[in-house]
Design goal:
365 residues; alpha/beta; 2 domains; six-stranded mixed β-sheet; 6 strands; binds zinc ion
Length: 365
């Protein structure tokens, strides 16, 4: 699965390939961009390029040689990482995190240090430094990947500073960040920062059918276009999106918004209660619901301001148009601001259903 299969961001792809081709990749690269845009995939592909035995072109990798074959399949990468994190969550219930720092091997020469809990731990930082000092096998290069490095505490970033500024020979490091400005300035200034942008919707929709998502190919064009739009142009999110589940939760959210102007109507309080209760134990559903509410509210704002081509939930445009007439623009602004508050307090379990309920009941004001 060589570089041409990476979706979008050709400019960054070319820069990375050039680094490998000119043997300047043994350094720290910061890959910046939104969730699902391809940062982890790009870092793994960089690792494969550095270790490919039979590159089809300078800076590329073949996907078939003895080295490439040992990598985890790229189309199951997200799935594997989330499984490993689930396993880890169970593991740390009985053993302290520091006992064995979390690290995943994506290939014999590629290591990933995902946030252990909320962020990269000091034990993981030490493990990374140790790993960087081990000599790689002849002809191979360590690729050490730190996802969500912008969430790491400053003390942890500082502990890694020396390694990041100048990785030992035979080591390449990729620090991934949604917000590169949250990285220590010294990290930013010494690294090569590449920013990955969302892929234009048409381009992503055209690329999706060939991209083999783990749960089966996206075969029909309408489905691909909808995914591309809902995922805001981020390939990873488009491929992982569980469309049926999304549409189901969105149906509940739309039902709520429909009833909001008549809070006295029979069924409103009950549907608010049901929806918020269903998120009590299910953090993932809560997050999905919040994300969906944002995307629906933004669509309503777009419709009210006459920018219909900006809407994401294109498969329910008619319903959105009706809703856009139900709310004043002030109400929408307020609903979005209140949702920000709900999201900010989302870490606390008890808080979730209550916050959602008060948000929903506030809609009618
Ligand atoms: Zn190869």
């Amino acid at each position: 699965m060589p570089w041409r299969e990476f979706i979008g961001n050709r400019h960054a792809v070319e820069q990375v390939q050039r680094l490998v081709a000119t043997q300047r990749a043994q350094r720290t690269v910061v890959l910046a961009g939104p969730e699902g845009v391809g940062k982890t995939t790009m870092a793994l592909m960089l690792g494969l390029s550095l270790n490919c035995r039979n590159p089809p072109a300078a800076g590329d990798f073949c996907g078939e040689c003895a080295s490439c074959r040992q990598a985890v399949p790229l189309n199951t990468l997200a799935e594997l990482i989330s499984q490993a994190l689930e396993h880890r969550a169970a593991e740390v219930k009985t053993a302290p995190r520091e006992a064995a720092p979390l690290v995943l091997a994506l290939h014999p020469a590629v290591r990933l240090y995902p946030p252990d809990g909320d962020f990269l731990t000091m034990a993981q930082a030490r493990a990374l430094i140790h790993q960087s000092q081990l000599r790689a096998n002849p002809g191979s290069t360590w690729m050490l990947i730190i996802p969500e490095f912008d969430r790491a505490r400053w003390a942890t970033q500082a502990a890694l500073l020396k390694t990041l500024e100048e990785p030992p020979p035979g080591v390449a490091i990729a620090a991934l960040a949604r917000n590169p400005l949250a990285l220590l300035p010294t990290v930013r200034s010494r690294a090569l920062v590449l920013t990955l942008a969302p892929v234009p919707i048409d381009q992503l929709a055209a690329a999706l059918p060939a991209a083999h998502p783990p749960e089966g190919a996206v075969s029909n064009p309408a489905d691909a276009a909808l995914r591309a739009r809902l995922a805001d142009g981020c390939p990873g999110r488009a491929l992982r999106l569980d469309l049926a589940a999304y549409q189901q939760v969105r149906g509940e959210a739309l039902g709520l918004l429909r009833l909001a102007p008549q809070p006295e109507a029979p069924g409103y309080a009950l549907s608010v209660f049901r929806l918020s209760e269903s998120t009590r134990a299910d953090k993932e559903k809560f997050e999905t619901l919040i994300e969906i509410l944002y995307s629906v509210l933004q669509d309503l704002v777009h419709l009210q301001s006459g920018y219909a081509e900006g809407i994401r939930n294109v498969d329910c445009t008619r319903e959105l148009r009706q809703l856009a007439q139900q709310f004043s623009s002030n109400q929408l602004t307020q609903a979005i601001e209140e949702l920000d508050r709900v999201q900010a307090g989302a870490g606390r379990n008890i808080f979730r259903p209550l916050a959602l309920e008060s948000w929903a009941l506030g809609l009618s004001r």
